[in-house]
Every structure is written in C-alpha cells, then in structure tokens.
Specification:
The protein has a domain of about 210 residues: 3-Layer(aba) Sandwich (Rossmann fold). The longest helix has 22 residues. Strands 3-2-1-4-5-6-10 form a 7-stranded parallel sheet, with helices on both faces. It has about 325 residues and is of the alpha/beta class. The chain is globular.
Length: about 325
C-alpha cells in the first residue's frame, strides 16, 4: 500500500514520513524544492507541486492514502494572492486528484487558525465556526486555510473519504528548514530575542501531531475533524522554560500588547536589514492574543491522543538543533 505525503520536507512531514517508515509503510514523498528532511530515507521521491494538477495525478497514481501537509505558512497581512494560490487552489487540486485517481482516504492537515477566536473566554473546539474567507479582519493565512477546509468538504460531498486535523502551534525535532518556531528557538539561544510580548500560544509537539494524524487515518470516520492541541503558555513562561533548559538568558523586557502594535514597522525594518523575514507582524500579534483554551477532548476520546509536556518537547528539540549543527 502506497502512502503519498505532500509537504514531506516540512516539520510535520519530516516526522510523519519517519513514523510511516517505522510502521513499514511504502512512502511516496512529493518534493517541490527542499529535500534535506528526506535525505537517507528509504522512500520514493517524486517531483511535484500542488499548484500543478498534472503532477498530482502522476504522484497519486496507485496510492491508497494521501496526507496533505503542503501549505504556504504566512504571518504577513499582504500575502493573500500567494496564500490563496497554494492553500486554497492547491488543496482543490489535491482533492480533485484524489477523486480522479481513486485514493481511498485523504488526511488534510489544517490549522487552529481557521477558527473564529472569539469569544475568548469560551473553550475552543471543533464546533467553532470558520473565519470569513472574504473578511479583511483576518490574516490571509487564516482565511486561506479556512478556504482549504471548504475545498475538502466539497470533496467529501462528492464521495471523497477525508478527515481534517487542526494542530495548534507546532514545535519539535527534525526541523530542517527550520520553521518560524524553530528560528525563534535558535535566535533565543544566540541572544537574538531582545524582548518578549505579553501574549501566549498553545504549543503542541510535532510528534504528538503525527500520532493524532496517523490515528485519524486509522480510526476516524469520513468527514470528521480533530483539534490537536497541546498546552498554552504565555511568552514569558515559555522563555523562562527555555532559559532553564538551555542556560541562555531569557529577555527581561516584556512589551505590552498595546505598545507592541506600534513597534511593528520598526522591528520589521530591522529584520529586513538583517536579512530575515519579519516575524513580528500584525498577524503574529493576533495569534498571541488568541484563545487560551484549545480543547483536544474529542481527539483524546476518539484517537487516544495525549500531548506530552512542553518541557519534554523543548528539551528534545534543542538537543536536536544542537546535534545537527544549528546552534553556535
């Protein structure tokens, strides 16, 4: 049985491919550009692009299961055209290719960002409505991932057997690129995080996301959806834990949210001068003000999903970065 993975070279993909191989599965990875995460693995690699339907037909031929992880991750407010092309239209291409080639099951990796965050004092679960795709009040990434879910739902209506999973803020080992979260961890150890912000994130271990996702393939009924959350920590709490693990000093300055919004242009200018993509943006600030309580009760009940402690995640992740030469 062949299992196809789109986005196989990303953080989730790198961990998922390794888990599938450990289970004895035959893995076909669609490679668009970066293949560092796949080097040395006994897999079938095929060139492809979710924006190219023909390449998907070739890649999905003879496959029984497709894990759709590929996406354009963005924390910018001006990237709707790119987010729409990759996340919405690309997912539409994946769905159509699954239907045309007879794929038995599609597992679509979405995001916590698709859900309306308010009311903030009510726990978040899978019943929360999606953000309005046409609303300029939401970041392009959030809207595009909501649009991607709609495309999957359309496929289900046409007979596609599909399941959706929604991870929260993913962190973990085998972060080859690295991810935005991985870059933050590396910067922290090198003293390049001068200040924190008075917000927080629900962090989840990528390995737990993979466990929940593979169990969704095995156990979940078609059309079901699972929020794969972890543990919410404020940014000061997160940095304090990193300080204990790495020995690098946590920033002592914590910027209140009202002041942080005024500093966005200045910090973005400094990032660009240093050759980095801005990570301090209006969209990222909104994420730091999101819901504090993401319930994984449904995943725990149906999939026996139990996220590990964040300290274990950060310890293992920093150890991986160190052993693979990412830290000075």
């Amino acid at each position: 049985m062949t299992v196809v993975v789109t986005g196989a070279s990303g953080l989730v993909g790198a961990n998922l491919v390794r888990t599938l191989l450990e289970e004895g599965r035959n893995v076909r990875a669609i490679v668009h550009q970066d293949r560092r995460a796949l080097e040395g693995l006994e897999i079938e690699e095929v060139a492809g692009d979710i924006c190219d339907s023909d390449s998907l037909y070739r890649a999905f031929d003879g496959a029984e299961v497709v894990y759709h992880l590929a996406a354009h991750i963005s924390i910018q407010m001006d990237e709707w055209p790119l987010c729409e092309a990759v996340n919405v239209i690309g997912t539409r291409n994946v769905v159509n290719a699954c239907l045309q080639t007879g794929v038995r099951r599609l597992i679509h990796c979405s995001s916590m960002s698709v859900f309306e965050q308010k009311p903030l004092d009510v726990p978040m679960d899978e019943t929360r409505s999606l953000v309005e795709i046409e609303s300029q009040d939401h970041p392009p990434y959030d809207r595009s991932k909501a649009g991607a879910e709609i495309e999957v739902r359309k496929g289900i209506e046409k007979g596609l057997d599909a399941v959706i999973v929604n991870p929260t803020g993913i962190v973990g080992p085998f972060d080859f690129r690295p991810s935005l979260m991985g870059e933050t961890l590396i910067d922290f150890t090198q003293g390049n995080v001068p200040a924190g912000i008075a917000g927080g994130v629900d962090y989840v271990d990528v390995r737990d996301v993979v466990i929940g996702t593979t169990r969704a393939e095995e156990r979940a009924p078609s059309g079901s959806q699972y929020l794969l959350s972890g543990h919410w920590y404020s940014i000061p709490e997160f940095f304090a834990m990193l300080e204990e693990i790495t020995g690098a000093p946590a920033p002592r300055v914590i910027i209140p949210m009202w002041l942080a919004s005024f500093a966005i242009p200045l910090v973005a200018f400094a990032d660009r001068r240093n050759g980095k993509s801005p990570r301090f943006t209006e969209a990222s600030l909104r994420e730091l003000q999101s819901n504090h309580n993401y319930s994984h009760q449904k995943a725990t009940s149906d999939l026996d999903y139990h996220p590990r402690p964040l300290r274990e995640t950060l310890t293992d992740t920093m150890r991986w970065f160190e052993s693979n030469g990412y830290l000075d």
